[in-house]
Amino acid sequence: MVRQYEKKDIKDMIRIWNEVVEEGIAFPQEELLTEETGNSFFASQSYTAVAEIDGKVKGLYILHPNNVGRCGHICNASYAVSSDARGKHIGEQLVTDCLKMGRELGFKVLQFNAVVESNIHARHLYERLGFQQLGTIPQGFRMKDGHYENICPYYHAL
Questions:
Q1: Are 136 and 150 in contact (CB under 8 A)?
Q2: What are the phi and psi torsion angles at 65 (to 5°)?
Q3: Which alpha helices (H) appear in 1-157, and where do they start and end?
Q4: Cys-Cys link to 151, which of 61, 73, 88, 140 (CB 3.0-4.6 A)?
Q5: pLDDT tens digit at each of 158 positions of the chain
Q6: Predicted TM-score (pTM) of this structure
Q7: In CATH, what number is assigned to the domain containing residue 10?
Q8: Residue 6: is it exposed, middle or buried by C-beta count within 10 angstroms (0-12/13-18/19+)?
Q9: Could you tell me if residue 141 is inside a domain?
Q10: 144: Cα separation from own chain's centroid
Q11: Within a domain: residue 96?
């Protein structure tokens, strides 16, 4: 089940978010969230949701404008699924809900700026859900081990 996050979810959300940051292969962030920074980070988004399995938070997404002004109708999102829950279609539930919420919030396009080319599971999911790849940015993402990989921007009309 995907739902809007509540304050009681913050510790699990921070744990899951930080797990992805520490893996160093998907999110551009390098600094881990603390309880204080996590509270303000998740509260500052246009929308933040969690996915639950048996009452336990196993994934989340954040949704926010990708730009301002004349490009403010384009939103961006990030998804995180706990390593112990991957392969259970939680990502698909999160992305599907995010597309719906983006429309409800008045955005016209959902754009991903930096999908790492080697993240084939995410790329296949996005393509299956109707996202279009915009091209490739060579060496656009520095992996945790220091080497660079290509990134693939994607978009989906809402």
A1: yes
A2: -60, 145
A3: 10-23, 35-43, 90-104, 120-128
A4: 140
A5: 999 999 999 999 999 999 999 999 999 999 999 999 999 999 999 999 999 999 999 999 999 999 999 999 999 999 999 999 999 999 999 999 999 999 999 999 999 999 999 999 999 999 999 999 999 999 999 999 999 999 999 999 99
A6: 0.95
A7: 3.40.630.30
A8: exposed
A9: no
A10: 18
A11: yes
> Long-range pairs for 12-21 at CB < 8 Å and ≥24 separation?
12/50, 12/56, 12/57, 13/38, 13/42, 13/48, 13/50, 13/57, 13/60, 14/38, 15/82, 16/57, 16/58, 16/59, 16/60, 16/80, 16/81, 16/82, 17/60, 17/80, 19/80, 19/82, 19/83, 20/80
- Name the one residue in this structure whose structure tokens are 């304050």: 7
Read off φ and ψ for residue 87, nearest 5 degrees. Answer: 85, 5
What domain range includes position 60? Answer: 2-112
User: Could you give phi then psi for residue 95, rounded to 5 degrees?
Assistant: -65, -45
Query: Residue type for 101, please?
Result: M
